[in-house]
From TrEMBL:
SUPFAM superfamilies: Xylose isomerase-like (SSF51658). Residues 27-318 form the Xylose isomerase-like TIM barrel domain. Pfam families: AP_endonuc_2. PANTHER family: HYDROXYPYRUVATE ISOMERASE, XYLOSE ISOMERASE-LIKE TIM BARREL DOMAIN-CONTAINING PROTEIN. This is Xylose isomerase-like TIM barrel domain-containing protein.
Length: 361
């Protein structure tokens, strides 16, 4: 029987160059996480610091450590800024040069899955002209090329709509793309933050919400219930909340970054784990989760992909604190949704942080 399994993103335990990757992995395992979404930034930092820039050797060592810890590497991510590029030479370069290197890394990591977020590449800094097209035909053809190359090498891709994406910014749009790509190795990632972040939340508003937030989200979730998505096409889901800001995220807000979408700035600084209302969480994550698990019948990897300013805290307890918060959130979701078959693996208390681990292979 397929059951839900807890995963977490490596970037959700501490920032690269501040908190070392082996230490983060050890904290994830100690707190009961069974899988890790490995961010390239973490792998790059580890390679530069420990293996003189040898990414392949860093990947081999990460795999060995995860094997010893009993953790699965869910995916390597993000293979970003790819689909719909107007610069077709750059599109070809990514396929012909970058992708084969990622295949080598993914193989060394013992994962067959690469995550692709929807493109959010900004305008050309010199001309101000857009760098991407919203032409769905071009986007689909680009992703078909990606999927076909991956199929030949034994890899799958999981596509996620970011709520600040240039053209694909809703679950509906991403599912349309997945359906039209129509490849068995190309599937969907559903993310509660990005779903709610697009139709329910507006961090630039004093209320933190869009004008018709509740009705718009309810309508989107009803469409999701009736979309007849085969659960096998959902390669994994992400559960994460967002913080209601004390002031609108405008040009005077400390999270503001010139030239970046407001929702992106909010996402990078103010995500929370589900059920952290005491920290300002306000998105209806449980409503979304019920659709994922009760209506769609998804079972599999449930990853907690949190980005937050708190991850930059240099305190060595930062990875342990985030691992503790994350697994507490996961177990509460399991209780509320009555995942009765779930048996927590955690061997440490989730009430107090474990000792920090700083480790180098």
């Amino acid at each position: 029987m397929v059951i839900n399994r807890p995963g977490i993103a490596s970037m959700s335990l501490g920032r690269p160059w501040i908190h070392d990757l082996p230490g983060k992995l050890m904290q994830a395992a100690a707190h009961g996480f069974e899988g890790i979404e490995l961010f390239y930034d973490d792998l790059d930092c580890y390679a530069q610091r420990t293996f003189n820039g040898d990414h392949l050797e860093a990947a081999r060592q990460v795999r060995r450590l995860c094997e010893r810890l009993g953790m699965t590497i869910i995916c390597l991510q993000p293979f970003s800024m790819y689909e719909g590029l107007l610069d077709r030479a750059e599109s070809d370069r990514l396929l012909n040069e970058k992708l084969p290197e990622w295949f080598k890394l993914a193989r060394a990591l013992a994962t067959d899955l690469i995550q692709v977020p929807s493109n959010f590449l900004g305008a050309d800094p010199k001309t101000g002209a857009p760098c991407t097209t919203g032409d769905r035909t071009v986007i689909v053809q680009d992703l078909q090329r990606l999927a076909d190359l991956g199929a030949g090498a034994g890899f799958r891709f999981v596509y996620e709509a970011l709520c600040w994406g240039n053209h694909i910014d809703t679950w509906e749009a991403s599912w349309e793309i997945v359906r039209h790509v129509d490849r068995p190795n190309f599937g969907l990632c559903l993310d509660s933050f990005n779903i709610a972040g697009r139709v329910y939340a507006d961090p630039a508003s004093p209320s933190g919400c869009t004008p018709n937030a509740a009705a718009d989200l309810a309508a989107s979730l009803e469409r999701l219930r009736t979309a007849k998505i085969d659960p096998a096409k959902i390669f994994y889901v992400q559960l994460v909340d967002g913080e209601r800001l004390s002031a609108p995220l405008d040009e005077k807000h400390p999270f503001h970054v010139e030239g970046q979408p407001v929702r992106m700035n909010w996402s990078r600084n103010a995500r929370l784990f589900p059920f952290e209302e005491n920290r300002g969480g306000y998105l209806p994550i449980l409503d979304i989760a019920r659709v994922f698990f009760d209506d769609l019948g998804f079972r599999g990897w449930v990853s907690l992909e949190l980005f937050s300013r708190t991850l930059a805290n240099p305190d060595p307890f930062t990875p342990a604190n985030h691992a503790r918060r994350g697994i507490a959130s996961y177990h509460k979701m399991a209780r509320v949704l009555q995942w009765d078959s779930q048996v927590p693996k955690s061997t440490v208390s989730i009430a107090e942080p474990s000792s920090p681990v700083q480790h180098r292979l």
